[in-house]
Amino acid sequence: MSERTSIHGQWSSRLAFILAATGSAVGLGNIWKFPYITGENGGGAFVLVYLLCVCLVGIPVMMAEIMLGRRGRQSPINAMEWLARSEGVSPHWRLLGWSGVVAGFLILSYYSVIAGWALAYVFRAVGGAFEGLGPEGVKALFDRFVGDPEALLAWHTIFMVLTMIVVARGVRSGLERAVTLLMPALFVLLLILVGYALSTGAFGQGLDFLFKPDFGKLLFHCEVVNGREHCEFSGSPVLIAMGHAFFTLSLGMGAIMVYGSYMPKGVSIARSSFVIAIADTLVALLAGMAIFPIVFANGLEPGAGPGLIFQTLPVAFGAMPGGRLFGTLFFVLLVFAAWSSAISLVEPAVAWLVENRGMSRVRASVWTGFWVWLCGLVTIFSFNIGRDWRLWGKTGFDLLDYLTANIMLPLGGLCIALFAGWVMRRASSEDELAMGRLGFGLWWGVIRYVSPLLVLVVFMHAIGVF
Ligand code: TRP
Asked: How far is residue 433's CA from residue 328's CA, in Å, rounded to a whole number?
């Protein structure tokens, strides 16, 4: 049998695949979301659960997802259908691809709004807007900014156009090159920020917060009401930590699957997955180590929510020597990190439109981009005119985030694990993964039992079964 390839082309090398997948994984999830959800969920214990989920669920599911993509060689919807047929089971497994398309769509709709904030902050930083502003000034600046729906809409629109241009041109021509340069630059800049955090005098406090587990905070949600602390059992921090493991590694919706479908045969899936997961985790931890010392040194609130990095880092940029330069560089790199993630969120949908509807990449991109853009209004309004609109106690943005990251991605990941572990013949995965006996045996055990059970246990815990 001649080797099957994707009609959309292939990555030029193993390194190109790793860079593209790392570009997808490293994004707002690491630098914006990880610090704020860690802050909201009490720190150390939350980080520990997140790290465990990366190892026991994230890496094995990433291997499974890449494997399914490379074997299927099509958009996730068609790949799942093809794989299911060739394993002799119901083609309805294609629904897994569909749920991924919907999840990617919803995630991008808010992802782009937040990336728009980063874009806006590039211009603030260039103009020296943070200089000497201090914590209160920075917070006021942020509140004024997100309170203005027109500004948010403008930046969201610009970011969506940028994303769809790259998607329309095909992932390989522009991004492969840009990412090679930008990912290492982001890393160096984060190190510089950690260096600044070292000088704030609250570095130890920041590290304690990140790495000293306090399990009470993980299982109970406490609020101070009328000067007295009320604590309630809460299952969701554990679910949020697991959901974030999926989110930050871009798993559970077909993004890594579609990238896998462009991966050359003969590249090691296991080794690539480890490299991607390690790089992704390092960036998140560095971001935390840069942000929390600044939070504590300035008496800021770790649980400030989605605005956290926009309310803390500018304080540092406003106070440190060369802050204007570093601030500008930081937000530019953040935009690039978001950009290389955003494209992977729509690639499954665009690849499907090209395959099944015979659209050109350009048309398919315009079409998907428009609907995602429109859906972004929900997030924009939930920071200003719709601040008080609630459904199940959540704002529009919170709801989109919770539904996608904590429900759709883990469920998608669960189905991927079940398909790879129980539906696919052992011989097929052994052939595709091509690793040593011991390594394969380990992965096989984990993907069949450990990962699915963990996801189920965390779900049951979150709904309060135990
Ligand atoms: N992983 C990216 C981040 O951390 C976001 C992202 C890109 C993503 N593609 C995805 C999340 C697919 C879930 C699924 O910023």
From this structure: 42
